[in-house]
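=== Structure Prediction Worksheet ===
Name of assembly: unnamed complex
Input type: mixed (protein and possibly other molecules)
Chain count: two
Listed entries:
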Amino acid sequence: MTPRESGGPPDGLPVRVAMDGLPARVRIYEVGPRDGLQNEAAAVPVRVKAEFIRRLAGAGLTTVEATSFVHPRWVPQLADAEQLYPELAPLAASGVRLPVLVPNERGLDRALALGAREFAVFASATESFARANLNRTVAQSLAMFAPVIRTAAEAGATRVRGYVSMCFGDPWEGPVATADVVRVGVRLLELGCTELSLGDTIGVATPGQVAALLDAFGRAGVAPGRLAVHFHDTYGQALANTLTALRHGVTTVDASAGGLGGCPFARSATGNLATEDLLWMLHGLGIETGVELSALAATSRWMAGQLGRPSPSRTVRALTGD
Amino acid sequence: MTPRESGGPPDGLPVRVAMDGLPARVRIYEVGPRDGLQNEAAAVPVRVKAEFIRRLAGAGLTTVEATSFVHPRWVPQLADAEQLYPELAPLAASGVRLPVLVPNERGLDRALALGAREFAVFASATESFARANLNRTVAQSLAMFAPVIRTAAEAGATRVRGYVSMCFGDPWEGPVATADVVRVGVRLLELGCTELSLGDTIGVATPGQVAALLDAFGRAGVAPGRLAVHFHDTYGQALANTLTALRHGVTTVDASAGGLGGCPFARSATGNLATEDLLWMLHGLGIETGVELSALAATSRWMAGQLGRPSPSRTVRALTGD
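=== Predicted Assembly ===
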């Protein structure tokens, strides 16, 4: 007998042992192509992005946020949205959900013209980040989103997601009041959003904060089925926070294949929770996801090769030897 | 207003929000100087090791496993135990606990001669690893430990820890039966061990496995106060597993400053849970540890400089800019 060179389990999968109080199934909302690649310094060619998204869907991911129809000046990495989205038409036709971020009515119009029918808007829980990211107050940004969400619904969009960023901490303001997050989230739902994604944009949250915020949404009448969690792994807390959210009834988890979303070896390492690290835990807990871990890890390894640096995902490195 | 360059909270500390069902205080059992450095390819000079341990204690860690009195042939990285341990006499005199690993009676004699009074033995839950690591069956290794534990107690040792490795998975055997782990652990306690450390040596465990093993020890009459958990972050699961153990009443957690314990950029990345990532979670949860995070992160950054590569701890990188 000799051990596998990686030291991992022979089949490359975790042992399955369920735990009480967790959902039977989790939907992974893959954000790598948008939230991940928008932070890459180097431009990624359209054909590589399209191939990446096709491979993600091939691994079993049913929801992949494809790009953002933001003005190219603000996010040059995603300036190719008009070229990319049509490439994905066969995927969309096969039933893969490919939501796109739209910052305003002009972005929505561009996306609608290309046939997109699932959208996301990006709000902030804090005034500082609203000003920095949108050059508006929180109230002004919500007013800007109102017609976007309404027009999307009128155009036949069945789902419009509302991101709430800086839910747990803000680099300018420090701690963020739970009441502020709930107020912005509830307002987005009132405006017509069908789901909220609660973002720990700077990755500082710990499980007690997560539990407290989810409890506060519950008191405000928002069921956990309408909430997704979106953690960054800046301080290594993303998976413990996710476990806490699952215990509170959340069944939609945002993650980024390979942990894309920030250089892991530099200051401001703000990578998203890696989809593979999440999958290792979910599969170990016997929670269904429909995603094949080995195919996803191979995809992330391929993408790491395209980007020229190793994946920050520990599971990708353990499984693929990077 | 401008954000801190790191994007983190202005004071470098997490917001504190407690969560039900967790202990008020956790003892961190720091394993970096032993479990971490024994995996370093390059030899670390004795003076650097001594300085490392002094700095760890200076940051508030009260238990630091200092070295191993194993035969130098097997672990050349720790062949300097005889030189290192006397350097630490002032620390020990000041009340810092400095347990040392002893593989057999000969190692114990060497450690006792230098004045060590707190020890650990290292057993395996699986036959394959017992054979690979100790060249013995599990039963033979336990028989070897019996006189070590007895002699240590007779010499005045108040604490003898029993490590149980491969508690959740084994690279040769795959899944490990809970009953096997409990049998080895209970036997170590019968032989006189005062504490067990349950090791996920290859880092594959997920929270359901952790909960199941701790429940099984409970059914065997072992209180969680006699158990420590020892997670490796190979698949990114260590902190989620730790949170699960805390919910099951465990209050002693093994961790390695800076995540020492395996090259993070190579195959078989088997680093320990980083003490700083653990501290971020514990402090965020309002759990007392007595450890100052900023001083510890600075220590790990210094040690990373000595080793010539960045720390794999996400919290260290976020706080120190590596």
